[in-house]
Amino acid sequence: MRLKNLSTSSDSHLGISKFASWLLQIGDGLIGEIDACDKTNTKWVEIPMSLIIPPTKNALHSLIDFVYGDDILKKSSASTLSARAIVCPKNETIQKINDIVLQRSPGDSKMYESADSIEFNGNQSTEFNTFYPLEYLNALTFPSISVHSLLLKINTPVMLIRNINQKEGLCNGTRLMVSQLLSTVIEATIITGTSIGSKVLIPRIRFIHKAPDIPFTFVRKQFPLKVCYAMTINKSQGQSLKKIGIYLPHPVFTHGQLYVALSRATSPDSVKILIDSDENTANNKTKNVVFRDFLHKVNTSEVRILRMWTPQIRNHETWFLAVDKNILGQRKDQSFLQSVLIPSRCYTIEKYGCGVPDRYQKWINNEFYMAVGTATSITPLPDTAIIPKHWFSFVSKTQIPDYNDQHADFVGFFSKLINCTKKDSEPYLLLILKNDFGEDIAISLWKEFTSVSSKFDRVVLENAPAPVIVAITIIKFSTYAGALRLGTSSATHLYINPPIPEMKLLMDSYNTLPEVPVFLDPPIQLSKILDKSHSDLSDRILTTKACIIEYIFSDSWYHVQCPKCKNTTFKQGKNWFCPSDGILESPCSTFKLNAVIKDESHSMTVVLSDNATQELLGTTADNLRSDNNTDDRKEVPPIAVSLLRTPRKMKIRMTNTSKDNNIRFIVTNIEKTPSEVPPSMTTPPPDRPTSSKNTNEESAQNYQQSKQNVRRSLPFENPDTVTTKRKAALKME
């Protein structure tokens, strides 16, 4: 409540002090007649007649005139629009009022229609699409999704209904004033929040609605805006308005709504109320819902501590996740709090405060957090099944674009971990998960996360029996160089096979996961790739079709490393030794092969990444190397030699260490099944005998010839120290 005495006259029917006292009584539920249907929480409150607009035929237009009036509508400005609004309990009423005010406002209107479609949730037939015509999809409305037909005018106030860029002030609930109506974007000026006065361009975005009660996923591409001459009472929270109209075609229906609506006013002269009453109710009486038990218990909570973390920024704070609330420790002795609140245990917490999280504290989508101070009482509770043992906020891959500058949780099948390197040479891991559609989701695991053993154990993850389901929490969505990326935060935790309902759903879909094609793009000739400049190749992954004609390596075709720290190991007698971890029981190996590839246009030397070599050979370096035969490192395995000169599609990109005058390439993926071989490469010459008699001799000769296509000259560029960018991978810092 922010009452000001600026516009209240001395002869006002309701003085400002009396108005403030009356408001507080409404907030506490202390006044009014008890409702016969809900004697505990609901009362009928009498509204002072000085605040009432009589319910005549044109009463709604009178309310609109009080808040806006023709002068405001004809000469709208950011300052006048931001200080006015009509509020109602429900969305249906909002649309009606917005249509009336928009029609009364001057200027030409422009209609923006959405592009609606559906995505199948299961194994529907191709005819499934015909069951839901476009007209049906256009008529669908869902909460927090733009309408199909969005009608706007210049100077119309609008509200964002999605977070677009929190750093720039473009958050869900931000109000703007339209300044230009273009075909692909809408220009608007921010009129509320932290970036008032900034001009921004709003694009169309994809809205995704997936619910168990409909047999498909609904997709709507539309501007994330709605007209906001009127808004819901909930959306008006936190705003102070110089003119506010409260329209109650139906009474409020939840705790504190009437108080929130009335307390937006800055004085009793700045608010008017229109009540649509029935024959049995006076036109100045309405319901007030106040949960008295809630008011008594709001300062006491029974919670389970699920996670604990210390942020990189403001590392003097300690954060906990308690079921579905953040708890911020604000004691001077943080170690004391960390010793009292133990993850997985239950507690009663009394006498805590409530704070509004800032941009560095918005770990989950809560409007408040519990602030534990020196006066807070913390009492251990016996374990109980009533308080959940897990809490996640999972999002799907299709929802990723809607979560820019936010955090969310992911769940999926563990696919692999890829060793990568930042531009400053700092190593990190790329976690690849597969969702229930078989699509890859790539998440960067930064050093701040992987170095904490209580959050991440690579050995346990990679050695768990398949299928492994991973839940990873509070992943940061951010934009870098125009691309959206996913990465761990200070609050990230990783869970292996957590006992949650999503586990069963994923396990049921495991055997029916579709294979997502990797090689969708048409192949590019090697000569055209070699003609491209450094800038043309930057951050691009290209598809080509070529043969491997020879392998190249220096001292060994594999590299042995420590499974924990990934350091290079060396052999002492019969044991492998790591400088950091000592003798290793089971070191891990990766391929370290370069190759010459060739197509009909040209040839080039490339690095074969460990991932690509595994795809080509269908096995790992660990399975092919032999500790008992030290000479095996000097000869490429026969299985690799036998695959020479067979055309295959490959994914290829420029290495991170390439310079303008020295461009090198790495193969990140190789087609498992070879492409169709041209007849000229498979048909023997007519004069060559093809009888089965000399088949074995020819095979031996061919193998010896193939061995000559392996040389050890070029220095090896370890593919595991190069960022391997899969199609689903995102740009890193």
From TrEMBL:
Listed Polar residues bias regions: 693-708
Region called Disordered, residue ranges: 669-733
Gene3D superfamilies reported in the protein's UniProt record: Nucleic acid-binding proteins, P-loop containing nucleotide triphosphate hydrolases
SUPFAM superfamilies given in the database record: Nucleic acid-binding proteins, P-loop containing nucleoside triphosphate hydrolases
Biased composition (Basic residues): 724-733
Origin superkingdom: Eukaryota
DNA helicase Pif1-like 2B domain sequence ranges: 135-181
Descriptive protein name: DNA helicase Pif1-like 2B domain-containing protein
